[in-house]
Amino acid sequence: MPFDATIINIFTNFTEEGVFQFGVNAVSDCGIMIRVGHLYEPGPDVKELLEFVGGLDKGTNNEVYVNAKMPKGTIIALNVGQPFGTAQGTGAGMDFGLLDLRSLNKNPPISFSGDRTLYYPGFSVCWLEAPWFSNEDLQTLAKIPALGGIRTSDYCKNSG
Question: Is residue 64 part of a domain?
Fold first, then answer.
Protein backbone atom coordinates (compact mmCIF):
# COMPACT_ATOMS: atom_id res chain seq x y z
CA MET A 1 0.00 0.00 0.00
CA PRO A 2 1.60 3.30 -1.04
CA PHE A 3 -0.05 5.22 1.85
CA ASP A 4 -2.18 4.63 4.94
CA ALA A 5 -5.57 3.75 3.50
CA THR A 6 -8.92 2.12 3.99
CA ILE A 7 -9.83 -0.67 1.60
CA ILE A 8 -13.42 0.20 0.74
CA ASN A 9 -14.15 -2.73 -1.53
CA ILE A 10 -12.72 -5.94 -2.91
CA PHE A 11 -13.73 -7.41 -6.24
CA THR A 12 -13.05 -11.00 -7.26
CA ASN A 13 -13.43 -13.08 -10.37
CA PHE A 14 -12.34 -16.32 -11.95
CA THR A 15 -11.06 -16.18 -15.51
CA GLU A 16 -12.31 -18.49 -18.25
CA GLU A 17 -9.37 -20.76 -17.39
CA GLY A 18 -10.51 -20.89 -13.75
CA VAL A 19 -7.73 -18.66 -12.41
CA PHE A 20 -8.66 -16.60 -9.34
CA GLN A 21 -8.07 -12.84 -9.59
CA PHE A 22 -8.95 -9.99 -7.27
CA GLY A 23 -8.67 -6.25 -6.94
CA VAL A 24 -9.12 -3.54 -4.34
CA ASN A 25 -10.14 0.08 -4.07
CA ALA A 26 -8.26 1.82 -1.26
CA VAL A 27 -8.77 5.43 -0.16
CA SER A 28 -6.44 7.66 1.87
CA ASP A 29 -7.76 10.00 4.56
CA CYS A 30 -7.21 12.95 2.19
CA GLY A 31 -9.36 11.52 -0.64
CA ILE A 32 -6.85 9.85 -2.96
CA MET A 33 -7.95 6.41 -4.16
CA ILE A 34 -6.00 3.64 -5.85
CA ARG A 35 -7.73 0.90 -7.81
CA VAL A 36 -5.67 -2.17 -8.59
CA GLY A 37 -7.03 -5.18 -10.41
CA HIS A 38 -6.05 -8.47 -12.03
CA LEU A 39 -4.10 -9.42 -8.93
CA TYR A 40 -3.37 -13.12 -8.55
CA GLU A 41 -1.90 -13.99 -5.13
CA PRO A 42 -2.96 -11.82 -2.17
CA GLY A 43 -0.55 -10.58 0.47
CA PRO A 44 -1.15 -11.94 4.01
CA ASP A 45 -3.41 -9.13 5.31
CA VAL A 46 -5.46 -9.00 2.11
CA LYS A 47 -5.75 -12.81 2.06
CA GLU A 48 -7.20 -12.65 5.58
CA LEU A 49 -9.70 -10.05 4.40
CA LEU A 50 -10.63 -12.14 1.33
CA GLU A 51 -11.18 -15.20 3.52
CA PHE A 52 -13.36 -13.14 5.87
CA VAL A 53 -15.62 -11.83 3.09
CA GLY A 54 -15.71 -15.15 1.24
CA GLY A 55 -13.89 -13.81 -1.80
CA LEU A 56 -11.81 -16.95 -2.25
CA ASP A 57 -14.79 -19.21 -2.92
CA LYS A 58 -14.28 -21.02 -6.23
CA GLY A 59 -16.48 -19.73 -9.00
CA THR A 60 -17.56 -16.47 -7.38
CA ASN A 61 -17.41 -13.16 -9.21
CA ASN A 62 -18.38 -10.45 -6.82
CA GLU A 63 -17.69 -7.08 -5.29
CA VAL A 64 -17.85 -6.72 -1.52
CA TYR A 65 -17.84 -3.40 0.31
CA VAL A 66 -15.60 -3.39 3.36
CA ASN A 67 -13.98 -0.94 5.75
CA ALA A 68 -10.50 -2.31 6.40
CA LYS A 69 -7.68 -0.02 7.52
CA MET A 70 -4.30 -0.90 6.00
CA PRO A 71 -1.06 0.89 6.88
CA LYS A 72 1.42 2.17 4.33
CA GLY A 73 3.63 -0.70 3.23
CA THR A 74 0.96 -3.41 3.45
CA ILE A 75 1.55 -5.95 0.68
CA ILE A 76 -1.62 -6.04 -1.44
CA ALA A 77 -0.47 -8.83 -3.78
CA LEU A 78 2.50 -11.15 -4.13
CA ASN A 79 1.73 -11.95 -7.79
CA VAL A 80 -0.39 -10.32 -10.48
CA GLY A 81 -2.10 -11.45 -13.67
CA GLN A 82 -2.24 -15.17 -14.31
CA PRO A 83 0.35 -17.89 -13.97
CA PHE A 84 2.35 -18.55 -17.11
CA GLY A 85 0.84 -21.33 -19.15
CA THR A 86 -2.72 -20.01 -18.80
CA ALA A 87 -4.59 -17.61 -21.07
CA GLN A 88 -2.24 -18.32 -23.97
CA GLY A 89 0.80 -17.65 -21.79
CA THR A 90 -0.09 -14.07 -20.91
CA GLY A 91 1.50 -14.34 -17.47
CA ALA A 92 1.69 -11.20 -15.35
CA GLY A 93 -0.31 -8.07 -15.89
CA MET A 94 -2.41 -5.76 -13.76
CA ASP A 95 -4.53 -2.63 -13.84
CA PHE A 96 -3.66 0.47 -11.81
CA GLY A 97 -5.77 3.57 -11.47
CA LEU A 98 -5.36 6.70 -9.39
CA LEU A 99 -8.39 8.81 -8.53
CA ASP A 100 -8.57 12.20 -6.83
CA LEU A 101 -11.94 12.08 -5.09
CA ARG A 102 -11.59 15.70 -3.92
CA SER A 103 -12.66 17.19 -7.25
CA LEU A 104 -14.54 16.05 -10.34
CA ASN A 105 -12.73 16.09 -13.70
CA LYS A 106 -14.00 19.09 -15.64
CA ASN A 107 -13.67 17.21 -18.95
CA PRO A 108 -13.64 13.45 -18.43
CA PRO A 109 -12.55 11.69 -21.62
CA ILE A 110 -15.38 10.93 -24.03
CA SER A 111 -13.44 7.96 -25.36
CA PHE A 112 -13.41 6.25 -21.96
CA SER A 113 -14.26 2.62 -22.61
CA GLY A 114 -13.09 0.97 -19.40
CA ASP A 115 -15.10 0.17 -16.32
CA ARG A 116 -18.73 1.17 -16.72
CA THR A 117 -18.87 2.64 -13.23
CA LEU A 118 -19.24 6.35 -13.90
CA TYR A 119 -17.17 7.67 -11.02
CA TYR A 120 -13.95 6.20 -12.39
CA PRO A 121 -13.70 8.52 -15.40
CA GLY A 122 -15.07 11.37 -13.32
CA PHE A 123 -12.20 11.27 -10.82
CA SER A 124 -9.30 9.46 -12.53
CA VAL A 125 -6.05 11.37 -13.02
CA CYS A 126 -2.89 10.97 -15.09
CA TRP A 127 -0.51 9.70 -12.46
CA LEU A 128 2.50 9.78 -14.81
CA GLU A 129 2.29 13.54 -15.45
CA ALA A 130 0.95 14.91 -12.19
CA PRO A 131 3.02 15.21 -9.00
CA TRP A 132 1.57 12.00 -7.54
CA PHE A 133 4.90 10.15 -7.21
CA SER A 134 8.51 11.15 -6.57
CA ASN A 135 10.83 11.50 -9.57
CA GLU A 136 12.58 8.28 -8.51
CA ASP A 137 9.26 6.40 -8.38
CA LEU A 138 8.23 7.84 -11.77
CA GLN A 139 11.49 6.56 -13.31
CA THR A 140 10.76 3.10 -11.91
CA LEU A 141 7.17 3.19 -13.14
CA ALA A 142 8.31 4.21 -16.63
CA LYS A 143 10.39 1.00 -16.84
CA ILE A 144 7.37 -1.25 -16.35
CA PRO A 145 6.44 -2.75 -19.71
CA ALA A 146 3.08 -1.66 -21.11
CA LEU A 147 0.57 -4.12 -22.55
CA GLY A 148 1.72 -4.93 -26.07
CA GLY A 149 4.40 -2.25 -25.74
CA ILE A 150 1.77 0.47 -26.24
CA ARG A 151 1.47 3.24 -23.65
CA THR A 152 -1.76 5.19 -23.96
CA SER A 153 -4.06 6.89 -21.52
CA ASP A 154 -7.27 8.82 -21.84
CA TYR A 155 -6.07 10.99 -18.94
CA CYS A 156 -2.48 11.86 -19.96
CA LYS A 157 -1.74 14.64 -22.41
CA ASN A 158 1.55 13.07 -23.51
CA SER A 159 0.69 9.37 -23.59
CA GLY A 160 1.62 7.06 -26.40
Answer: yes
